[in-house]
Design brief:
Elements: H1 4-11, E1 21-23, E2 26-32, E3 40-44, E4 51-54, E5 77-81, E6 86-92, H2 99-123, E7 134-141, E8 152-153, E9 167-170, E10 175-176, H3 177-181
Parallel strand pairs: 3-10, 6-7, 7-9
Antiparallel strand pairs: 1-2, 2-3, 4-5, 5-6, 8-9
Amino acid sequence: MMSDMNILSQMIKEAALVQKEKEHGKLFVVLNEPQAQDSSATIRHLPHDALVIKVDAFRSPDTIFNGTNGECKRADYVIISEEKRCILYIEMKRTKDGRNETVKQLQGAHCFVRYCQEVGKSFWKKDDFLDNYNNRFISIGRTSIAITSRERMSNNKELHDTPDKAMKIDCPRYLQYNKLAGAGS
């Protein structure tokens, strides 16, 4: 039986993937905000099997949906690891984020992953494809390279397992996968 990561590798086009890099034997990824060239965040210590998907590469469903409730929105990135049984949904903002907008974008990315899950179950015939993964939602704000403030993470002790409880990070400097993945990963 094929692994979830093998199925995703076959399903998702190369152009929608972000290449991981290696430094001192550890994997990391640089996420760039699609609408701003001077805006990025680096996530270090990725699991070796992590797949980083640019969700914005998925064409907007606005040819079908009206978009009046935000159903056409999507977050910027998704990082999936079968080894850690975790899916990170990441929305980046060059400046301070608008909470309602970010929640809708994270919800849209979650819908994208659920669509991929159904495609894997139906067309790859894997009934447990992407089942029992922890979902973690993250909003990264003030990602502009010009901003030199100290990194701030929300003090919210709730698990960031739904879009409305997303972990909020401003001025990211040193993001680590395990910290973003939270408990249970």
